[in-house]
Amino acid sequence: MQNKAMERKLQNGDAVDVSGFARDKDGNYVLPDYADGIDYADKQREDWIRSIGRRRSDGVILAATDTRFYQNDAFECLWLR
Q1: Using one digit for the tens of pLDDT, what is the confidence trace for 14-27?
Q2: Which positions ≥6 away from 56 have C-beta within 8 Å?
Q3: Between the CA atoms of 39, 44, 47 and 48, what dihedral angle is there, to the nearest 10 degrees?
Q4: Cβ distance 40 to 16 under 8 Å?
Q5: In this structure, are residues 67 and 50 in contact, taking their beta carbons and an 8 Å threshold?
Q6: Structural Rg of the chain based on CA atoms
Q7: How far is CA 35 from the centre of its chain?
Q8: Whether this model's pTM surpasses 0.90
Q9: pLDDT at 67
Q10: Phi, psi dihedral angles at 30 (to 5 degrees)
Q11: What total of structural domains would you count in the chain?
Q12: Within 13 Å and on the Cβ side, how many CA atoms surround 57?
């Protein structure tokens, strides 16, 4: 892994690897839950998750490597990097 900061956080339990999580039709990662104060990353792609949102219509929690859930009325933005 080239991103040593990500590697350390994943090894220490300070980050969650979402690479094995299901993805929706838009490529968002479907999270089973959300924990505040922890980072999220796709270890396989070595890409940080930049926003996490709870869809207002059904409560599903989604994560993305961009900021699509920030200031999006369809989502409650839970986390923004």
Answers
A1: 999 999 999 999 99
A2: 73, 74, 75, 76
A3: -10
A4: yes
A5: yes
A6: 12
A7: 11
A8: yes
A9: 97
A10: -95, 115
A11: 1
A12: 4
Q: What mean pLDDT is predicted for residues 62-71?
A: 97
Q: Which residue has the tokens 């207002």?
A: 56
CB 8: neighbour CB atoms within 10 A? 12
- The H or E element spanning position 5 is helix 4-12
11 CB neighbour count, 10 Å cutoff: 10
Domain that holds residue 56: 4-80
65's tokens: 């490597």
Whether the Cβ atoms of residue 60 and residue 30 lie closer than 8 Å to each other: yes
Average pLDDT over residues 36-65: 97
**pLDDT for 74:** 98
Q: How far apart are CA 54 and CA 30, in angstroms?
A: 10
CA 76 to chain centre: 14
Average pLDDT, the chain: 97
